[in-house]
Here is the input.
Amino acid sequence: MIDLPPLARLGGRVATGLLDVTRDPAALESRGWWAVVAGDDGPPVCARFADVRPAPPAPASPAPWYGPSRAAWTSSLDRAAWTAGVADIHARIAAGEVYQVNLCRVLSAPLPAVPGHAHDIDALTARLRRHHPAAAPAGTVRLPDHGVEIATASPELFLRRTGRTVESGPIKGTARTAAAFLPKDRAENVMITDLVRNDLGAVCAPGSVTVPGLCVPEPYPGLVHLVSTVRGELTAGAGWPALLDAAFPPGSVTGAPKSSALRAIAALEPVPRGPYCGAVGWVDADRGTGELSVAIRTFWIDRASGTPLLRFGAGAGITWDSDPAGEWAETELKAARLLAVASDPNDHEHVHDLRRAPSWR
Here is the structure.
């Protein structure tokens, strides 16, 4: 067992004093404040905390983060396998099986052995807050006894709930500048927005699902995304279990139709995604509010093998118009700054030259 207490740092709050952990999402309709992590390994992990307070300002001297060497990162798909995967998806599109598939690779690097140091994922969150500013501050979910150690800087809203109103903000389309978007980017966004609209429509009142914003450019460090907004009103009796059942996994990181895209992902991606492309966030059952992000721009520590590994995912939506080299470059663009932040902070060249793409093997 790791000598680090359970903690959640989400939504401008910090939560301590773990009360209980369950994988039953019905608990989110009970009482209390919950941290939620959902991945590809089954029902979500829901952790209820006793002490929830506004998060203090970032400490002047946060705990040290001992990151991996930048050269140590390896990819679950090399460039040849990526190119073959894109070709396979093109064949599935030609056969009428899918319209789009989000193809992802998981990047991994061993964390260095530091005597007396347990590699606190919250220290990595502090680095993300300092070196990768975004619209939503980076967050932590640390549940060592339950195999959950996550630092996330996700900009993408999966589900926000205020009473009976629910909202999703799918991101699809990534470029270095707003002027660099291709027609493919907008087509992808519209396709996934329609998928999300249908997902929410399964649990929302007829006629209540709207799209207040479509393909809106939003700048982030080093890149620009196209973001849409989908909103609806839950039907009577529908709560978090029904909402998660209808909308998970997020459409923006699976594809369309979702069921066919998931079959393609299972066939083409050689390792599980873990929490990547799942959801991470909080639910306040007492107030009927909550916010879950799509778990992109997310690091997690995997200690299953004994040697702690830091993992990170990167992916791209593949359509008929996709060029394998261009989609590979998109995954590098998405990951370069973040891998530089998470890698050895004593490697000054890597920390400060955040524009460089990593040399993944």
Summary: The chain has one domain: 7-57+72-352.
